[in-house]
Design goal:
about 650 residues; alpha+beta; Dipeptide-binding Protein, domain 3; 9-stranded mixed beta sheet
């Protein structure tokens, strides 16, 4: 259990010096007036504290049993899984839709809509669908729906951003209502992951281009409503609406469902509550760490593609563009939340119903992190997921009605580079920027140690990870040497070059941009930070209208096929996510081998070489793997986190 902190609404204000003094971004982020932005940030947080005190001790609007308000940063761009590439759309779609297969916490694949499948040869996949599965409108799911979903995305006229995930499909057969057969043009080791739930949710045959306005799936939650930039509302469907009867599947299928439920229970147990303790006049945050779970690698089939942080760009399957789990097991330091649901005072604000299940969830769009924190503080919101700035977490952790759960994540933060820009086309410049970036300080002060250094897109616990690559520690002198060698010497004002970094309007992205401005200025690089709305940001990236960008891959880096997605010269937008227009003939050759090689050890050797080449070329600057942190009301009970920060815990 978490140690309780705070006894009244005024404690945030009374303890403001103690709680907020830890924000040290002012050490290197300065404002125009000379006042540090870190100090400005402290002021804004103090304002929140004052607002909280003024608002009183109200517990928030009363909600019925099982109703939850989930505050998110941005509006889901498109809930049609055939088009969804932003992180919020893909996370919510996982609740509405099912795929043919799904991954567990250890990145093993299991049947979802498919009860079983066979691969009689490397070019043929035969899926047998579960019987009695129904869409939310009562229609029964058949093989026709699966075929229609995939073929719709394959059709160039429909302009699905996921079309690039299926060039290997020659044809799809549906010999009966419960059987789907895929014939491939060539062997493709990651094919199953392109059909995973995060990548492809199955929709009813005949769904048109406006399907995202009122999506209909087969998942545990049904769509209720969406108000642009305000909220998305889902409600749980009864299990009997999805499966006609257990008898239609037979005893073996029934047991499989039970086994599947046990696996999900294990997955939801991931994540550890953050415990705050007092010592020597300071408060410190520590995590409860449990035994590391040994991942079971399916070996032959690696991860799914996901998306990117604010958006998940992945035209391929996947989920979240910049979001992702690993393929060979869970990250280390997995924990289990120990907090049990409380009854009584928290119930006025929100609660789980008597069955312990969420029945209705409102995803409320709240762009400002301070307002999200205040909503949680007041009790008008119940949960958030990795959407608050690190300095807010200790303040909220003191509240007796709130709990913080965290776990190591695999979502990959990086600086994207446009290699068609004349300045950035020079490898020495890209390497210089990497050396000029003090990532350890950024993690310590800006992220409050809620991240781990990254040397490449695959996380260290991935079976294909290669750690013996060129790494870039903080070395400003080496950065200056490389810039001199590239022909960019300091001018009279000390400036070598001017660059522009595009970020989203999220506060964490803006603060990072401000920190980089200060760090790079020391080596003569003048950086302009340009915040953009999420839709505009990703539109500019797809068009190549940028020099540098900051994004987070969510779920895409759980399979080596991500190399094809982001580094292949054939996968530039709109056919993929090689937004920087990186070209390397040897990398293209290796990627082709990775796609076709079915032997895992041989595939790993190919992946190793790609990672070594990319670490030298630097088509992007690796930053870190972001931890998954959730602040939620204790009345929600155990919140199990996945390495990619999905919302699957709502299904428990």
């Amino acid at each position: 259990m978490l140690r309780p902190y705070g006894r009244g609404c005024g404690d945030l204000v009374q303890n403001k010096k103690h709680d907020l003094a830890g924000l040290k971004t002012g050490h290197y982020i300065t404002g125009r007036s000379g006042q540090t932005r870190g100090q400005l940030r402290n002021c804004s947080l103090l304002l929140v504290c004052a607002m909280a005190a003024v608002c009183g001790c109200g517990r928030g609007a009363r909600r019925g049993p099982g109703e939850v308000v989930f505050v998110i940063e941005s509006n889901p761009a498109n809930l049609d899984p055939r088009y969804a590439t932003d992180g919020q759309s893909q996370r919510i779609d996982r609740l509405i839709f099912n795929g043919l297969v799904e991954r567990d916490a250890e990145m093993n694949l299991h049947g979802d809509l498919a009860e079983k499948w066979e691969t009689p040869d490397a070019l043929t996949y035969v899926f047998h669908l579960r019987r009695g599965v129904k869409f939310h409108d009562g229609r029964e799911l058949t093989s026709r729906d699966v075929k229609a979903t995939i073929e719709y995305m394959m059709n160039a006229e429909n302009k699905s951003p996921k079309r690039g995930a299926f060039p290997m499909i020659a044809s799809i057969e549906t010999p009966d209502a419960e059987t789907v057969i895929f014939h491939l043009k060539e062997a493709y080791a990651s094919f199953l992951w392109n059909l995973e739930k995060s990548a492809v949710g199955i929709v009813p045959a005949g769904a048109g281009s406006d399907f995202g306005r009122k999506p209909i799936g087969t998942g545990p939650f049904r769509f209720v409503s969406q108000a642009q930039d305000e909220a998305v509302v889902l409600e749980r469907r009864e299990e009997r609406e999805r499966i006609t009867t257990e008898d239609t599947e037979g005893p073996q299928s029934t047991q499989r469902r039970k086994d599947k439920g046990q696996r999900r229970d294990a997955e939801y147990a991931e994540g550890s509550p953050r415990r705050e303790t007092q010592g020597e006049g300071k408060s410190k945050v520590e995590s409860l760490k449990l035994k590391v779970s040994e991942g079971k690698n399916p070996g032959q089939r690696p991860g799914n593609k996901s998306g990117e942080e604010e958006r998940v760009t992945q035209d391929p399957p996947s989920q979240n563009e910049d979001r992702a789990p690993t393929r060979s097991g869970d990250p280390a330091d997995m924990g289990r939340s120990s907090a049990a649901p409380l009854h009584g005072e928290g119930r006025a604000a929100s609660t789980i119903n008597e069955s312990g299940r969420v029945q209705r969830v409102t995803f409320r769009i709240v762009p400002d992190a301070i307002v999200r924190a205040l909503e949680l503080r007041k009790g008008s919101a119940d949960v958030e997921m990795s959407s608050l700035s690190p300095d807010m977490i200790p303040v909220l952790a003191k509240r007796t009605e709130l709990e913080v759960t965290e776990r190591p994540g695999t979502n990959f933060a990086y600086l994207g580079v446009n290699l068609e820009d004349p300045t950035l086309a020079k490898r020495e410049v890209r390497q210089a920027l990497a050396y000029a970036t003090d990532r350890e300080s950024l993690i310590k002060y800006l992220l409050r140690d809620e991240a781990r250094l990254a040397s490449g897109i695959l996380p260290p616990n991935h079976w294909a990870y290669e750690g013996n690559v060129k790494k870039y520690g903080y070395a400003p002198a080496e950065a200056e040497r490389l810039l001199d060698a590239a022909g960019f010497r300091r001018g009279a004002d000390g400036t070598r070059m001017h660059l522009t970094l595009k970020v989203t309007t999220q506060e964490a992205a803006r603060l990072l941009g401000a920190a980089l401005q200060d760090q790079w200025k020391k080596v003569g690089v003048a950086l302009e930070v340009r915040p953009l709305e999420t839709a505009t940001f990703f539109s500019d990236l797809a068009k190549g209208n940028f020099q540098l960008s900051y994004s987070i891959w969510i779920g895409a880096n759980n399979d080596p096929d991500v190399f094809d997605l982001v580094f292949s010269s054939k996968r530039m937008p709109p056919n993929g996510s090689n937004r920087g227009h990186y070209r390397n003939a040897r990398v293209d050759e290796l990627i082709a081998g990775i796609r076709a090689e079915m032997d895992r050890e041989k595939r790993k050797a190919l992946c190793s070489e790609v990672q070594k080449i990319v670490a030298e070329d630097l088509p992007y600057v690796p930053l870190w793997y972001v931890d998954v942190v959730s602040v939620h009301r204790r009345t929600m009970g155990r919140v199990g986190l996945t390495p990619t920060g999905d919302y699957d815990f709502l299904v428990k």
